[in-house]
Design brief:
By secondary structure, this protein is mainly alpha-helical. Helices cover about 55% and strands about 0% of the residues.
């Protein structure tokens, strides 16, 4: 049995090295985003910081790709998460949303944050700044629902 371990490990290492040539392409990153929510809504500094730390890597065009993002097959998983996150909500495209969509997204932000669904559990272990306390979750929820109320004229 032991005589098979070394060849098996060498085969796995070879496969891992070959996979590095097939990383995929990271989703686009832009820092100039004139339609960004930060430019179009009133957001206090603390909420803005929370959104940038806990949401923007997956839900904006301002994704930050750390070194481990470029290790295959992890790269495939991360790039897919970013693409999916942007499809669901892209803060960098906020001004292009209809009012109905904005209101719906704000309600979802409140709900997903308060239920602990966002940020994803798979994201927070390597992004300590994205780990939200109950008070921070409440702050984001209150901000989002406050914008909904303001838009509806309440």
């Amino acid at each position: 049995m032991k005589k098979y371990i070394k060849p098996a490990l060498l085969i796995l290492l070879g496969a891992f090295i070959i996979l590095q040539f097939f990383r995929g392409t990271p989703p686009e990153v832009r820092t100039d985003n004139p339609n960004d929510i930060m430019a179009h809504e009133v957001i206090d500094a603390e909420v803005a910081t929370l959104l940038r730390n806990a949401c923007y890597d997956c839900h904006s065009m301002e994704s930050n790709y750390p070194w481990y993002t470029y290790i295959t097959p992890l790269s495939w998983w991360i790039f897919e998460h970013v693409e999916h996150g942007r499809e669901e909500l892209n803060f960098s495209e906020w001004a292009s949303f209809s009012m109905k969509r904005k209101l719906h997204k704000l309600e979802e932000i409140s709900e997903e944050t308060m239920e602990g669904k966002m940020p994803l559990e798979s994201y927070t272990p390597v992004h300590a700044e994205a780990q939200l306390t109950d008070e921070q979750r409440q702050l984001i929820s209150d901000w989002a629902l406050g914008l909904v109320e303001k838009a509806k004229g309440n």
